[in-house]
Specification:
Elements: E1 2-6, H1 11-19, E2 26-31, E3 41-42, H2 48-57, E4 60-65, H3 72-75, H4 79-100, E5 103-109, H5 133-148, E6 151-157, E7 160-161, H6 168-178, E8 181-185, E9 189-190, E10 193-194, H7 195-216, E11 227-230, E12 237-238, H8 239-250, E13 256-260, H9 280-286, H10 293-305
Parallel strand pairs: 1-2, 1-4, 2-3, 4-5, 5-6, 6-11, 7-10, 8-13
Antiparallel strand pairs: 9-12
Helix pairs in contact: 1-7, 2-4, 4-5, 6-8, 8-10
The chain binds NADP nicotinamide-adenine-dinucleotide phosphate (NAP).
Length: 306
């Protein structure tokens, strides 16, 4: 089967390159920019005709959309581009995959929540209450996919990190080794996610989809597991506790890390105070086990140090 990955030079896209290495399927890695040293075909997901041409030319049956506008603060003053990338572009992918009877795997975010004061883990069918442009445009992207009639899997994830690109783990590994003191918010609670673990879950879902096609003996099926799923690592933490653990694993014991409130770091967007995702559905439907966040953090930091 031919599987197209968009945004392949980002965090999740790069983890897709790693986890798919042993696969019998043919993976086609694309991004808006070609990157030196990695095999990437140019594909801008805002360009409908280019998507359709690539899907038809390469007989693509599954798209894994790892591309997005991910700068949460900048999104507040860049609404048009953010909507184009996070809402219109996923719709483009959905329309093309609907035409060929394929599957669209899309990634969304815990930022679709946050406007209501939750204190229990968010379920998939809980009403979206985004507090900023990024979350709102990601919610629109989900709705556009659902309205297109395509077979889809949407994985909402949170606090994504990896050995690739810029992210919280790498920033804190650096800051806790160079700064004598650090203040980190303790009033935002969620769950970190190692992008490698999410990529493995995406591969498990693709295998499941393939089995359903083979069993149905039809080339086009209505995938029985189409829907929204929550995926993060297991457990719950605050950014403060997350930082303490990063410093602990790094052996950076000379940095005095103190908890503080969000209002000490004014930001253009209000971030969710509690956005823990309930993962019961993804575990039950796909029969997967999810690693505990501290274990995944250790694995990722080992890989960063290599
Ligand atoms: N990062 C998080 O904490 C987090 C949390 C929850 C959910 N998510 C979601 O998880 C997914 C993956 O996030 P990530 O952190 O891996 O993202 P990322 O590292 O920012 O990667 C996104 C990739 O998409 C590319 N891209 C931008 N515009 C494009 C276009 N028009 N066509 C094709 N590619 C384009 C980017 O290229 P440039 O770099 O050149 O722009 C980048 O390589 C996203 O859907 C995101 O919303 C992320």
């Amino acid at each position: 089967m031919n599987i197209l990955v968009t945004g392949a030079n980002g965090q999740l896209g790069n983890e897709m390159r790693i986890v798919s290495k042993g696969s019998k399927d043919t993976y086609i890695f694309t991004d808006v920019m070609e990157e030196e040293g990695v095999d990437t075909i140019n594909l801008d997901i805002t360009d409908f005709d280019s998507i359709r041409k690539m899907v038809l030319d390469k007989d693509v049956r599954v798209i894994v959309n790892c591309a997005a506008y991910t700068n949460v603060d900048k999104a507040e003053t860049d609404q048009v581009l953010c909507e184009l990338l996070n809402a219109k572009a996923p719709e483009n992918l959905a329309i093309v995959m609907k035409e060929v009877g394929g599957l669209l795997i899309h990634v969304s975010t815990d930022y679709v929540f946050g406007g209501d004061p939750y204190n229990t883990p968010c379920k998939e069918d809980q009403k979206g209450t985004p507090t900023g442009v990024y979350g709102l445009t990601k919610l629109h992207g989900e709705q556009n996919i659902q309205n297109s009639g395509v077979d889809y899997l949407i994985f909402r994830t949170s606090w994504l990190y990896s050995e690739f690109g810029k992210n919280f783990v790498k920033t804190m590994m650096n800051l806790t080794s160079t700064k004598p003191q650090l203040k980190v918010v303790f009033d935002q609670v969620g769950t970190p996610t190692y992008a490698y673990d999410l990529a493995q879950t995406i591969l498990a879902a693709i295998d499941d989809y393939k089995k359903e096609i083979v069993n149905s003996q039809l080339s086009i099926v209505n995938y029985s597991k189409s829907g929204i799923y929550h995926y993060s690592n297991e457990g719950v933490t605050s950014w403060y506790d997350f930082t303490k653990q990063i410093a602990e694993i790094s052996g950076n014991r000379n940095c005095d890390i103190q908890p503080c409130h969000s209002d000490e770091f004014p930001s253009p967007v209000k971030r969710p105070a509690y956005s823990v995702l309930d993962k019961t559905k993804v575990k039950e439907i796909f029969g997967i086990q999810i690693p505990y966040w501290m274990d995944s953090l250790s694995r990722c930091m080992d890989n960063i140090k290599k």
